[in-house]
Design brief:
The complex is a heterodimer of chains A (240) and B (330). Chain A is mainly α and 240 residues long. Chain A is 51% helix and 2% strand. Chain A has ten helices and two strands. Chain A is elongated. By secondary structure, chain B is an alpha+beta fold. Chain B is 36% helix and 12% strand. Chain B is built from five helices and eleven strands; from the N terminus they run αααααβββββββββββ. The longest helix of chain B has 33 residues. Classes of the chains: A mainly alpha (240), B alpha+beta (330). At the A-B interface, helix 7, strand 1 and helix 10 of A face helix 1, helix 3 and strand 5 of B.
């Protein structure tokens, strides 16, 4: 998929890039120039040369801001092999510097900045409350992810606090946006709770994948069966 | 690695238990050979104590069930009663009733004298019990109490909720508040989010209370003409309780970019019933037998959301034959 995307970007965009940049493109572009160049090469086939989107392929990037660009690029959700695919977390083909240049370029069209998320400003208990109210339906109560019809809600175990803040601000793919309802402190609490779910405090001992009461019940039954057989064995010993 | 080690230890432990049990078995056989058939008062007392404790635990279950149905305590008392009854049975079998092991040549089949001997042995096995009536009484009490504890939860099957289940706190003019009792204003419901609302001044716990509110761009609304007024500015409210199994409809699928993503829908996380908000909660997919009930809304002069009446359809999960009912109220 990645290779196909790269090829498509090279073939489809190469001609356009040549036209726009011309032969006089500088050999060592500055940060702004390199952001534009990367954009033209990797993004413009769907989002348009002027970042105003193209019908049926990709939305406009004017006004999405650094928050969306950073979220999609840093988590490897963009570039996408096929515009109809659901963007999913993967290793980004770009280097850190390239991502920064691209984010700066997209941010130059305006929009919200990358949110500053400090999980220490929130609490795990408030995070659990807010997460249960707004996020659990799709992402499952300990952030293991799940599905909605025709879509996948990602596993949050790889999500950094800033990813959480960006997703809440941006509302990527089919996720709603929650900035109107959640305060900055509540968002920090959610980020802290998501961090907590990576190593939850398993009071019962063994978490059994944290996927709910059904596997827990099954394990209990198996253990109880073992204890029952042992008891029967001991009881029957004297009369065999 | 650690788990493997633990498993290994468990297997070794089990082996040791078995070896010890075998040794004890041999010792017991040796003892039994010379044991006089005197009543074992201590064992009898233990059995009686276990039976009485079982009865007490079962009665505690009955009392707790009626007073405070705390499931942890209910489980503890009922499980405890069963375990104590088992303990009493095991003790009675091993210590109270004298046991004899005898190996002898098989006599001819149908030997009447041998049958008589067996009968005598069976009858004698209870002969060393001194307080037969006390034991039987305690066993009867434990059995009766456990029976009562087992049967009582049938009371939870009633009463019939027909009618009361469809009652909701929503009336014309009742304002919508958030979970922390703040009034919800119309502009808070933006197009890319969902809001959970509750009736002002009523319990949030009842089946008819919670709402899921979204905003559909007005040109996209496909509502019957008589329902259009209930969705002012495209703000549309539904019961948050799925009409299938009563879970909270807590997923709002809202695409950032329509052409490449599935269209907006309200989805229940339990069994993925999917409803279309722009068509008044019409069922698109899933096991629900009817549409998501819609609540008419209106916007007050101060810009707050309030109900324009009760739900258009009856709310709540499906039961009996209500699954296929259109649910429309008259």
């Amino acid at each position: 998929m990645k290779v196909r995307a790269a090829l498509a970007a090279l073939c489809g965009i190469g001609a356009l890039a040549g036209l726009v940049l011309g032969p006089s493109a500088p050999a060592k572009p500055g940060p702004a120039e390199s952001g534009r160049q990367l954009y033209v090469e990797g993004c413009s086939s769907c989002h348009g040369m002027d970042a105003r989107g193209s019908p049926g392929r990709g939305p406009t990037l004017r006004g999405v801001g650094a928050a969306a660009a950073d979220f999609y690029l840093r988590t490897g959700r963009m570039p996408l092999a096929d515009p109809k695919d659901q963007p999913e977390r993967s290793d980004s083909p770009y280097t850190g510097a390239e991502i920064r240049a691209l984010v700066d370029y997209v941010a130059s069209f305006g929009g919200p900045p990358v949110p500053r998320i400090d999980p220490r400003r929130g609490t795990v208990s408030e995070g659990n409350q807010v997460f249960s109210d707004h996020c659990m339906g799709c992402h499952q109560v300990v952030g293991q992810g799940g599905i909605t019809t025709q879509g996948v809600a990602p596993d949050l175990r790889k999500s950094k606090p800033v990813d959480v803040g960006e997703a809440i601000t941006v509302g990527p793919y089919v996720m709603p946006r929650f900035t109107d309802q959640l305060s900055r402190r509540e968002i920090a609490s959610v980020a802290r709770y998501v961090d907590y779910t990576k190593h939850p405090d398993d009071r019962g001992g063994w978490g059994i994948g944290h996927i709910g009461p059904v596997p827990e019940g099954m394990v209990t039954w198996l253990l109880a069966l073992f204890a029952l057989v042992l008891t029967i064995r001991v009881l029957g010993e004297g009369t065999s | 690695m650690r788990r493997l080690l633990r498993t290994l230890l468990a297997v070794i432990g089990f082996g040791a238990v078995r070896r010890r049990a075998r040794r004890r078995h041999e010792e017991a056989q040796a003892r039994r050979a010379e044991r006089p058939t005197e009543p074992d008062r201590r064992a009898e007392n233990l059995v009686v104590a276990a039976l009485l404790l079982a009865a007490a635990a079962a009665l505690a279950f009955v009392v707790l069930y009626l007073v405070t149905p705390n499931t942890q305590l209910l489980g503890l008392t009922f499980g405890g009663a069963l375990a104590l009854l088992g303990l009493a049975a095991a003790l009675a079998g091993k210590r109270v009733v004298s046991q004899e092991q005898a190996a002898e040549e098989y006599p001819e089949f149908g030997d009447e004298r041998a049958q008589g001997d067996v009968q005598a042995v069976v009858e004698e096995s209870g002969s060393s019990i001194s307080r037969r009536r006390l034991l039987l009484g305690a066993a009867g009490l434990a059995g009766g109490a456990l029976g009562a504890a087992a049967l009582l939860p049938a009371a939870s099957l009633g009463p019939n909720v027909d009618g009361t289940i469809a009652a909701t706190p929503w009336r014309r003019g009742r304002r919508v508040v958030s979970r922390d009792d703040k009034l919800i204003r119309a502009e808070e419901v933006s197009e890319s989010t969902f809001v959970t609302g509750f009736p002002e001044g009523a319990t949030k716990e009842s089946l008819g209370a919670p709402l899921i509110i979204v905003r559909v761009p007005a040109p996209e609304l496909r509502l019957p003409p008589d329902r259009l007024a209930g969705a002012p500015d495209g703000i549309i409210a539904f019961s948050k309780i799925c009409p299938h199994a009563g879970c909270a409809v807590s997923m709002y699928r809202h695409p950032r970019f329509r052409p490449t993503a599935p269209k907006p829908a309200l989805v229940c996380p339990c069994h993925y019933s999917t409803f279309d908000p722009s068509r008044g909660g019409k069922l698109l997919f899933g096991p629900a037998g009817r549409d998501l009930p819609q609540l008419p809304l209106q916007i007050t002069a101060a810009g707050e959301l309030e109900a324009g009446g009760d739900f258009y359809e009856s709310i709540g999960p499906s039961y009996g034959r209500s699954r296929e009912k259109p649910g429309r109220k008259d």
